[in-house]
Write a structure and sequence with these properties.
Rossmann fold; about 325 residues; single chain; alpha/beta
């Protein structure tokens, strides 16, 4: 782990090297570009499943993952204040401008600065949910950094798109019963049960272990709230999406209750040349049963960027 100074703050980052003998994806013998993982709303770098990270490493890529600002071990500044969620929701509902101490544009600038600080200016980007939104801005406004873009269960923010199901909205806005670790874990288990993949359920023991790892590392509910307001304040990115030039794949679950699949079709229409992959039975998570499919989708996107056929990784 390393603390990286970027955009006036610090981000906690982790750079992982592939094992010796991992698959090399380039015919010219050059080392494959790193893969940058951008996590979603309120989630730490530890939320990336181990098998997901290992699948990318097995293909010969360095993997960079990090805590977005205001979460995990990255900067959390008191000057960012405590937003009024009710006022934000009302303004959002009637289309009034929303003011926030930072937006997704700031978070994309954080990411670009981190890459420069790490000496890895060009990467293959994988963003999940809010991380996909940050990835959209990175690919459009900081395109020199983005060799390819895989956008998973995300949205353009267009106002006409359907919102979460009532159950998904309710569980995302609910609070744990107490601030005790056990109550926080139980709360997040309930979240996973509501928004997770009905066709690929994550065993509760695995979900609990991953949640507990995050809770032991850091708990910062205010960061979740401020990131949520940042999403609303950023608004519709439709016009920006047309500026993306990197080969892009949109991956989305057909049964996503938090970001309905209409958002994926909308993205695919707005990002030039984007490939759409809708997965039946997938919700709003990264379940063990879908990790090979997700890794293959990323590999195919990378292969398009490099003008080569994708190669299949074989276990060591």
């Amino acid at each position: 782990m390393t603390q990286v100074r970027t955009n006036g703050i610090y981000l906690e980052a982790e750079v992982l090297d592939p094992p010796a003998g991992a698959v090399q994806n380039r015919d010219d013998g050059a080392a494959p570009l790193p893969v940058l993982l951008i996590m979603g709303l309120g989630m730490q770098l530890t939320a990336w499943p181990d098998a997901f990270v290992e699948g990318l490493l097995a293909r010969g890529h360095r993997v960079i993952r990090f805590d977005n600002r205001d979460i995990g071990l990255s900067s959390k500044l008191g000057t960012w204040g405590r937003p009024n969620l009710l006022a934000t929701a009302i303004k959002d509902a009637i289309g009034l401008p929303i003011r926030a101490r930072y937006t997704l544009h700031d978070m994309a600038a954080d990411t670009a600065g981190m890459l420069d600080a790490l000496g890895t200016p060009r990467v293959h980007v994988v963003g999940v949910s809010m991380g996909g939104m940050i990835g959209q801005i990175l690919a459009a406004r900081h395109r020199e950094h983005v060799a390819s873009f895989t956008c998973i269960m995300s949205s353009s923010g267009a106002r006409h798109l359907p919102g979460p199901t009532p159950a998904a909205r309710s569980v995302m806005l609910a609070r744990p019963r107490t601030t005790e670790p056990e109550a926080i874990v139980e709360h997040f288990i309930k979240v996973v049960q509501v928004i997770g993949s009905p066709g690929y359920p994550t065993p509760e023991e695995q979900a609990r272990e991953r949640v507990l790892r995050g809770v032991r590392r850091s708990v910062h509910p205010l960061g979740f709230v401020r990131q949520l307001v940042a999403i609303s304040a950023t608004g519709d990115r439709s016009a920006l999406l047309r500026e993306i030039t990197a080969p892009t794949t949109i991956v989305h679950g057909h049964h996503d209750p938090l970001v309905p699949v209409a958002a994926a079709h909308d993205l695919a229409k707005k990002i030039p040349g984007a490939v759409l992959k809708v997965i039946d039975g997938m919700g709003h998570d990264l379940p063990p049963g879908l990790i090979p499919t997700l890794i293959e989708s990323i590999a195919q996107t990378i292969a398009r960027a490099e003008g080569q056929p994708a190669r299949v990784a074989t276990p060591a």
